[in-house]
Amino acid sequence: MNTPATQRTVKTACNRDCGDACSIVATVEDNRITKIAGDPDHPITKGFLCHRTSRFLERQYSPDRLTTPLVRNGETFEPASWETVLNRISESMLRFREESGPASIMHYRCGGSMGMMKLVTDYFFEKFGPVTTKTGDVCTGAGDSAQQLDFGTVDSHDIFDLLNSKTIILWGKNPYASQVHLLPVLRDAKKKGARLILIDPVHHQTVQLCDQFVQPRPGGDAALALGIACWLFENGKVDPSAESYCDNVDEFESLACSRTIEQWADVADMSPSQLTQLAEAYSDGPAAIIAGWGMQRRANGAATVRAIDALAAVSGNLGVPGGGVSYCFARKGAFDYSFLQGEAVSPRTIPEPMFGPGILSANDPPIRMVWVTAGNPVVMLPESETVKQALKTRDLTVVVDSFMTDTAQCADIVLPTTTMLEEDDLLGAYGHHWLAEMRPVVAAPKLVRSDYEIVQALAPLVGMDAEFSDDVEAWKRRMLSPGQNKGASLDDLRKGPVRSPAGPSVMFADRKFPTKSGRVHLTSDVDTTPSSVTPDRPLLLTSLATSAVQGSQWLDGAQDDHLPATVHPDSAAGFNSDDVVKLESEHGDITVRLKLEATQRRDIVLVPKGGWLNKGRCANALIKAQTTDAGDCAVYYDTPVRILPLR
Ligand SMILES: Nc1nc2c(c(=O)[nH]1)N[C@H]1C(S)=C(S)[C@@H](COP(=O)(O)OP(=O)(O)OC[C@H]3O[C@@H](n4cnc5c(=O)[nH]c(N)nc54)[C@H](O)[C@@H]3O)O[C@H]1N2
Ligand SMILES: Nc1nc2c(c(=O)[nH]1)N[C@H]1C(S)=C(S)[C@@H](COP(=O)(O)OP(=O)(O)OC[C@H]3O[C@@H](n4cnc5c(=O)[nH]c(N)nc54)[C@H](O)[C@@H]3O)O[C@H]1N2
Ligand SMILES: [Mo]
Prior knowledge:
single chain, 6-stranded mixed beta sheet, binds ligand MGD, binds molybdenum atom
């Protein structure tokens, strides 16, 4: 084959907020990236990319990309030089710190990039302040806090350990949309004879892969888990040695048996025979639970995950190959980032879901400046209009992004940043144990800077040159120092795929748990109340990840129509598919295009997450800011709404 002289390939990795953290092979011709593909040599990526990232070049070369710093002038923005904007920012930062203390500045970062170098930018603000930061996590906070409490840590069985399972429960998970590289493993497990079960209130593509599908009431999972546990206790299927590694077995048994199977099934809106069937399948182990993140974005999210953890424990599925309850992989586990102290030293924190109202109500000192990076909080956090108001009413709002998002629209200064194909960084994954290095495939446009380059340029202006003079390579080596001599140094990563030496194959194989007592801390008190609607508003707004978009990062033209809203035909009496209607909550309304599907529950309306506010497609305009029972996760899916005619 004839290869043009100027063609080269570069290996990098996908830093987007997804469990897969794929290894990418990019082809560059004349300094332009012409192709990106999945790395065929990577055990998880297996040579293919998901729908959204395979089309990333459309974003890379989009005419909408930001290529110069922008400064607000009334309702519009004007280009400015880096010197001008950095001088203005540094003067403001020094003045706010001097006049009001560092808590008057808030640094907010979300999931735009999973790169480890982003922690170094957090460190910049910690060193300068420490400043006000967020607590919790709108994505996984409730489940994280549940597993910390129950097991003392959050990590998962090796993804290929699923090949040892006889039964696999996908407990609220749609890998076709959100984690496509889990699919080959699930298919292989199935070929080896595993039984696949999906528990999800929403009917979606993953149903076709599974042997069994149940569609419980939204938020009915705690009751369902306790019902299954009740059946295990009543039928002598509980691990007889559970007492030797679990605290509170008796209390948990009392809780599980405080209602009958029929009663638990009723709370979960299932038939008793469906629940019994599930229990029988689960007791035919080893049985793995893959706990999705959706069910913990509800008022009782932490309690729900705790009930599932306890079920896994008493069934004897902890510490055995093919078992476990895998929620998140410890993506930072292989790295040393002890330079960052985080929440422990923040002078003030705001729970992430309360970002909007939290900023508005903060006083002593008020928040005068907000720095937003790798996040689009107006679109992605609850109460979009409140978030917008909070950002627009500060003395200075700085947003770092590569596109003019709804959030950037609220800024006083917008700083243009690198895309993932221009980034220099390190990655762990939250869906498997492999590590990767990101290398810039091409140089960024002239006036575009990475988050690290931005804080590097700011550092001398605020008297912090020393800490941030190191180049990225030095930070990479420092963060990977635990992997030295363990096959996971930076040099090792440059040779090929590296599995984290810290990643367990089977979690808790010795049945020792890093809790205070060294044992599993079974829950004995669970709020099993499912999500509820009201007589006026009979549908729960369910805004989920879809394959076409990453968070709020759409491709050009993908938001031209109204947001699609899928409901059961009985829940939209008098309307037809394609009708344009209003979806209204207590908090606001948006215009949507109906899609009728008889496979859905009657108490749900399904919309894609991430629609932009300025396109009228933002689910979070309807959702109230509220935290889950623990872990400061957002309550995204408990908002009752109704369908109304347009006029
Ligand atoms: N294409 C694409 N992929 C993505 C993302 C994206 O935006 N686009 N986002 C990324 C991010 S940020 C994350 S956190 C993950 C998304 O991770 P998740 O939010 O876990 O996404 P899903 O796999 O869709 O799984 C959520 C499932 O939980 C179900 N669910 C909701 N409520 C309940 C409940 O009460 N009980 C039960 N049993 N199930 C429930 C939903 O119906 C849905 O099918 O995906 C990542 N991957
Ligand atoms: N209604 C509803 N809301 C939700 C969810 C839901 O299910 N329903 N899901 C929630 C979940 S799971 C999550 S994780 C959050 C995600 O919330 P966000 O992380 O805020 O969502 P993204 O759209 O991925 O926003 C990332 C922004 O970062 C930018 N970006 C990408 N790379 C970089 C970089 O290297 N540097 C900088 N400075 N910017 C970069 C992108 O252009 C994009 O505008 O949303 C939550 N919001
Ligand atoms: Mo997320």
